[in-house]
Write a structure and sequence with these properties.
The structure holds three protein chains of three kinds. Chain A is 80% helix and 0% strand. Chain A is globular and about 60 Å long. Helix content of chain B is 34%, strand content 25%. Chain B has seven helices and nine strands; from the N terminus they run E-E-E-H-E-E-H-H-H-E-H-E-H-E-E-H. Chain B has a six-stranded mixed beta sheet with strand order 5-6-7-3-8-9, with helices on both faces. The chains are: A mainly alpha, B alpha/beta, C mainly alpha. At the B-C interface, loops of B face loops of C.
Chain lengths: 231, 244, 224
Amino acid sequence: MQGRTPGFLAASWIVARKDLAIELRTRSAFLSVVMFALLGLVIFFFAWDPTAVSAIDLAPGVLWVTFTFAGLLGLHRSFGAELQDRAIDALLVAPVEREAIYAGKAIANAIFVSAVLLVAVPAVALFYNLPLVRAVSALGLVGVLAAIGLVAIGTLFSAMAVNTRMAELLLPMLSLPFFVPIVLASAQASTRMLANRPFVDEVLPWLKILIAFDIVFAVACTVAFPHTLEE
Amino acid sequence: MSDAAVTVQAKSLAKNFGRRTAIAGVDLTLSTGECLALFGPNGAGKTTLLRLIAGLLKPTAGTVRVQGVDVRRDTHARSLVGLISHHSMLYASLTALENVEFTARLYGLPEPRAAARRALESMQVSEGARAPVRTLSRGLQQRVSIARATVHEPSVVLLDEPYSGLDEAGAAALTSLLQSLRARGATLLVVTHNVVEGLALATHAAIMTEGRFARFEQRGGAFGAGFDAQRYAAEYRELVRHAG
Amino acid sequence: MTSTRPRPVFDWLLAVAILAVVGAIVRIAFFTPVELLQGAAQKIYYIHVPAILSAYVALGIVAVMSIVYLWLHDERADRLAESAGEIALLFTTVTLSTGPIWAKPIWGAWWTWDARLTLTLFLWFVTAAYLVLRGAVDDPLMRGRYSAVLAVLAVLLIPFIHLSVYLFRTLHPMPIVLKPDRPSLPPEMLTTFLISLAAFLFFCIVLIRARYRLALLREEPVVP
């Protein structure tokens, strides 16, 4: 009863579905991450002097920093389930490419992180009194681009961190230097969009950096993943 | 497929991990329907040998082929192999049915849910099928794991201490499953510490120490009708004591 | 009873390298004229720049050896990468410490987020992460794989850091900092600089070699 073994995309999606099924079953990780993100937004609000900095200048930066740290919390669980009873071995023995395992997990993480964005973006518009439609579209667009880069790096590093002694500390330490261009470009692009700055001159270069980063690291991390495995 | 088709072949197989030699030179040929019982002390290289055949590791020297194919290179040929170990390789928060169905999908089976049900039934898991795996007993988990590993009806089944953690019912179900797999023409490689149980199923028996086969016998040779399993077990214990 | 670990031998090259660096510092302090505009603080420049250039050499070794390791899985490449990584962190720390000492009297600010400084700070973080990762993995093969992957990804990161900071400064007018143009060095100063550079590079290479030998000494002999 041999069927046709799934190709790269099909296999990735099968793995992603499985990860999402596990996540939906427990749900606690998602709620914790959303709570963390919202709390972060609130705390930064109380640290803010509205007469010194305008909401449009501050809010996007606050969102991206909070989102990054919240994302790190969420990414951490990605490979935990694989290690628990050596489920990863079953994946490696299966007729799917190792890169597809990585891609599947990254896709699941991207969906998870986007769901957090769905809550955090309207929240920041609300808390900081930003013009709603403009804020949600600008932050939403940038958020999707930022999420791709965050997830590409975070999925790979969580695969490594889970095998080490200080996993919770190591994941941020490895990932944050890589997240800086993402946070910088995201904050710059979204602040300028909200302030209605000229798009091509001031916003587009930052979006280009984000897109380039996403492409380079999505490819690089997919290629790198098999090299982290024992052989 | 002819009766005498070679399913597993290793030639001068060697594996080093950095400076440590795990497999020092192994030659092995198994055909359809044959079963090798592999004994040996801990650290002898038995698990490494299984992982090499499964395509999880790359040989340092020599070759290993399953039905003539290098499973490490040919991704799709991995569906020829099934791996069972004392780790369940299951996802604790998913149900038994979900776990096996996921595996069925990974292997591209046309009706994954039906195949998963069948596999679970053949291992006599029905009550626990819809509960998260972490709520099941160890023995039941092991049965689910075996269903997971055989849902795609592999031609070569590699078992790393499959009897550990099984109660009597589970062990009996496993033995009858293995017999039916053999009857269907699968090749089995069983690593076990239980000499008598291992020999009952086997057409070949080997003792591995320090990365090599110290002894290798097959039915029709020394391991035939008049074979004294108790004496073999005693000699095996001697070998293990000297090696350890 | 076997003696499998070699006894450490006195490292002559390291002694010579240390003398060379001391000699360079003496020359900097006593035998080089004080720069007219910037004053005595400018002399830090003779340490600051050779330090970062040496760090670049060490980091280059880490990057190349990481690629070699991923390709050949030779433990010597991994050992050399580890040694070069530690030395790189040392020299980057020297750079980041001497920078503000030079900058404050001359630019009027301890730190500016210009492209080069920011990149140096990043290199420090990434190198530290590399060493922490190595410390957190027990299995030597896994350690080699993971740190090599991190090193290669870090190489890809560098252009993005550089580009981001450059764009940031182009579009974002920073407060005007008194920053004289790169001084064109008169011959005496140039000589001092080159001597210092040579001494530091030599010291860097010799330190990596010493660290590599230390790593060899530390490794447990394989139990037969």
